[in-house]
């Protein structure tokens, strides 16, 4: 105790954070770093594997986007509703849009001051270093080249691979869950997670396999993950990555520690899902949790749809699913130009066409209605989400659950029709202990409903005045005032609440959850809830056995609250 009274915080972080790795997995990116770092490495959560299959490689995205006529009508209606609020022309009006086609040709009237916005993404070199290739006698095409294809490519490099190259791109996590499907087995998902995380540990953090037993891991898991997925992640960290011990923290809980709060309504807006949860005195309130099936990637596709509607998008073969490099470009445009404010928002920008293996070609254009796509957070009909193939039913049959009570899953329905074309988890029952039901409502309604579920009026007032926006979408200009205004209007008039406030983040909203996990790991001196590698491997969940992990109570508790002694 004398040490804790006298130690300098920076010294504490340096001493206890040097062998502590914080892992915060997301659908689009994974954030990994040592606890002593200010910010983690933020890496696209994907892997490209070389394939010898002839013909056009299967990208293995396991998704499709099909817009029905009703969805199209709902989308146009949502645009017009948003347009009336933002005081811009409706979708079918052309009064002030007539000049946009000519503006697209001469887009230099608004030169960009940030050259990074106008830089093309280069195609990835898929061949190994010449020095490495010389050491490897195995070549792919002795008649044309002595170069050898790289076996695996990770992160942004994987997204920049030309579709003509013999690679399959795997995304192990989609929409806040393991991307399990008939074409992408649970075993392959776990193997890809191991490969991606191991590459980050070796290439970015420079932690060799022989040194892993000197490190511990903190898993900061999204609120969308279910018990089985958390259990698989623990196995990956302890068995496959060989960490000596690990602990699990929920993302929402880590966020308040990252910003130095004890009570707040946490709104986490990621690339593919958004979650809302209320925290009181360092304890998560499960009945306040809301999961929304949209995020930054959907805003990108909405941006593309609007520009194509107004014919402001050049005649390019832009396909965010078949060519991930196009999603990189759209993400950059969204981050650079999209904002929420009244009036018409137009910007001159450079977009690129990425044809198979050819150098990128620049096209100057004027992007318009840039304040509409982020309004899809409040009007989800603007955002048409991806659709998923149905996962194998065996994936859900987790009889050896990591919690004390097993799930009572009702898989009824029989037949082979299943749930093709619907979001992965919609047709399956969920655990009564840990419901993970997505809600088709806007962000303001989700925040209001979440806080009003907290019960006491004094707590509700405190939460409405302590809203935290985190995640990459939280950087959107004008979002704070839009949330405050729309949440205030969403509160029923019968409620005695007249103040809504979004608190500023102390750091980049993208990394707040990761930083909170680092703080929790450093301050957890007792480590009673930590799981050691040998214990997990010997006493963990055993297939065909009724024996539970002896500290499973702590696993469950640690995912939702942190007891500060």
Automatic annotation (TrEMBL):
A family per Pfam: Actin
Entry-linked InterPro entries: Actin, ATPase_NBD
Coiled coil regions in record: none
GO biological process: double-strand break repair; regulation of DNA-templated transcription
Gene Ontology CC terms: Ino80 complex
CDD domains, A to Z: ASKHA_NBD_Arp8-like
Domain of life: Eukaryota
Database matches in PANTHER family: ACTIN
Family: Belongs to the actin family.
This protein's name: Actin-related protein 9
Biological classification of the source: Eukaryota, Viridiplantae, Streptophyta, Embryophyta, Tracheophyta
